Structure formats: structure tokens, C-alpha cells
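FAQ

Q: What does a record look like?
A: Structure on top, sequence underneath. For example:
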């Protein structure tokens, strides 16, 4: 099970930290990703992190603003989002695996206002 939290409504330029609590599987052995989906748009793969946390991928659209991390002792995945922009408004999901295709949680809404 994957449960996202930490979303909300913020102004442009502010920060949010999303969390994903994982359970029911060997979290430390699974690569993890974050994706987002805005209304009427396809899901966008944002970032991924290897099992040990040292290797990661971040899409060009959020590079320099978003940082993925994980705590294998707590079975937690995080996404630190800085300098948020209006176009970051979407539902954010954590996903099992390296890529956007795996099992995802229910998501957390992020709304960025001007």
C-alpha cells in the first residue's frame, strides 16, 4: 500500500514536501518514483530513486526545484518541491518501480496559486 500526504494549496514560489508511506512490501528493495497528473493531461514522470537512495532521475521540467529522497528505515518516500509554479498544480502520486507504470497510491493534490 502507498499513501501520499503533504499536498495543499500554496502560492507560487513557496515549497511543499510530499511524503509517501509504504507498507506491505519490501520497500528497501524496490525502486520508487513520483509522478503527477493534471486535469486533462497524461501522467508525467517526475523523479525516481534507486533502492539505496544514491542513484536518481529527475525530469527536466522540475530539475533544480524538486528533490526525491527516501528513508528505508521508516519505509518512507519524499518529494521536496521548491519554488513552486502555477504549472505544478496536479495530483501527485508515488509509484512502485523506476518509471510511471507501477502501482500507485491515491495521490495528494497540490495547488499553486498566484
Amino acid at each position: 500500500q502507498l499513501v501520499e500526504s503533504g499536498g495543499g494549496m500554496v502560492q507560487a514560489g513557496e515549497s511543499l514536501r510530499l511524503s509517501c508511506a509504504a507498507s506491505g512490501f519490501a520497500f528497501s528493495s524496490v525502486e520508487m518514483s513520483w509522478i503527477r497528473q493534471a486535469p486533462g493531461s497524461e501522467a508525467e514522470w517526475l523523479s525516481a530513486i534507486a533502492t539505496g537512495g544514491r542513484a536518481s532521475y529527475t525530469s527536466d521540467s522540475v530539475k533544480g526545484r524538486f528533490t526525491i529522497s527516501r528513508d528505508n528505515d521508516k519505509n518512507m518516500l519524499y518529494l521536496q518541491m521548491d519554488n513552486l509554479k502555477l504549472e505544478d498544480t496536479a495530483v501527485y502520486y508515488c509509484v512502485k518501480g523506476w518509471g510511471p507504470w507501477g502501482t500507485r497510491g491515491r495521490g495528494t493534490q497540490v495547488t499553486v496559486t498566484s
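Q: Is there anything notable about this one?
A: The chain has no helices and ten strands.
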